[in-house]
Amino acid sequence: NAGVMQNPRHLVRRRGQEARLRCSPMKGHSHVYWYRQLPEEGLKFMVYLQKENIIDESGMPKERFSAEFPKEGPSILRIQQVVRGDSAAYFCASSPPGQGAKETQYFGPGTRLLVL
Amino acid sequence: KQEVTQIPAALSVPEGENLVLNCSFTDSAIYNLQWFRQDPGKGLTSLLLIQSSQREQTSGRLNASLDKSSGRSTLYIAASQPGDSATYLCAVRPGANNLFFGTGTRLTVIP
């Protein structure tokens, strides 16, 4: 059973471009979480999605950031008009349907975004 | 607002020593607490998950304890090895939606 997969692993963008980060959860997992780790800081929650639904986006910046988890295919975190401050490691985690808060979250290897 | 603090921020020990990493959190209303390991440039590996009703969990040379009322957890590593060198992250789960992470303790085990 493959783990959580994220691609690309590294992404370089110039200011003003768009960044699209993909996350494929573990097989059988229907819950996806996105976290951001800024340099020298801890991981911060961004958004929690289930298939076709955003459940909690309280950690998402109000502008330029969006996330989706379609019925088919990976979850996508999209950052429009990137700025240097968006440079960070973006981690995706997944968990199976079941006991909600009692379930372990399994993390992917992350996408390291560098904005020039 | 939940805040998670990990002390020390960095720790160096000689191989073979036992060590304790500390984690404290400000809001005791949590479902569980999880310890992770993060290697440079890599993702997070879950080490131990302690539900709020539990006091401790053990896996091999690792033992994690939880004192929810005082907002504290410790991760005990026995007989440390150079391969244990990594950043150790503590995270609490206040609800179904997300984890609150500490900033981690960077451990170096010297051969």
Most extensive interface, residues per chain? A-B, 27 and 26 residues
How far apart lie the N and C ends of chain A? 36 Å
Uncertain parts of chain B: none
Helix content of chain A: under 10%
Oligomer kind? heterodimer
Shape category of chain A: globular
Q: Which residues of chain A form runs of ≥5 with pLDDT under 50?
A: none
Biggest pleated sheet of chain A: 7 strands, mixed
List the helices and strands of chain B in order. EEEEEEEEEEE
The Cα radius of gyration of chain A reads: 13 Å
Radius of gyration of chain B: 13 Å
Q: What is the share of helical residues of chain B?
A: under 10%
Distance between the termini of chain B: 41 Å
- Return the structural class of chain A: mainly beta
Description:
The complex is a heterodimer of chains A (116) and B (111). By secondary structure, chain A is an all-beta fold. Chain A contains no helices and eleven strands. Chain A is globular, with a radius of gyration of 13 Å. The mean pLDDT of chain A is 92. Chain B is mainly β and 111 residues long. Chain B is built from no helices and eleven strands. Chain B has strands at residues 4-7, 10-14, 19-25, 32-38, 44-51, 56-59, 62-67, 72-77, 86-93, 100-101, 105-110. In chain B, strands 2, 4, 5, 9, 10 and 11 form a six-stranded mixed β-sheet that branches. A five-stranded antiparallel β-sheet of chain B has the order 1-3-8-7-6, with no helix packed on it. In chain B, strand 7 (62-67) and strand 8 form a beta hairpin. Chain B is globular, with a radius of gyration of 13 Å. At the A-B interface, strand 5 and strand 10 of A face strand 4, strand 5, strand 9 and strand 10 of B.
Could you give the topology of this structure?
The complex is a heterodimer of chains A (116) and B (111).
Chain A: E1 5-7, E2 10-13, E3 19-24, E4 31-37, E5 43-50, E6 53-56, E7 65-68, E8 75-79, E9 88-95, E10 106-107, E11 111-115
Parallel strand pairs in A: 2-11
Antiparallel strand pairs in A: 1-3, 3-8, 4-5, 4-9, 5-6, 7-8, 9-10, 9-11
Chain B: E1 4-7, E2 10-14, E3 19-25, E4 32-38, E5 44-51, E6 56-59, E7 62-67, E8 72-77, E9 86-93, E10 100-101, E11 105-110
Parallel strand pairs in B: 2-11
Antiparallel strand pairs in B: 1-3, 3-8, 4-5, 4-9, 6-7, 7-8, 9-10, 9-11
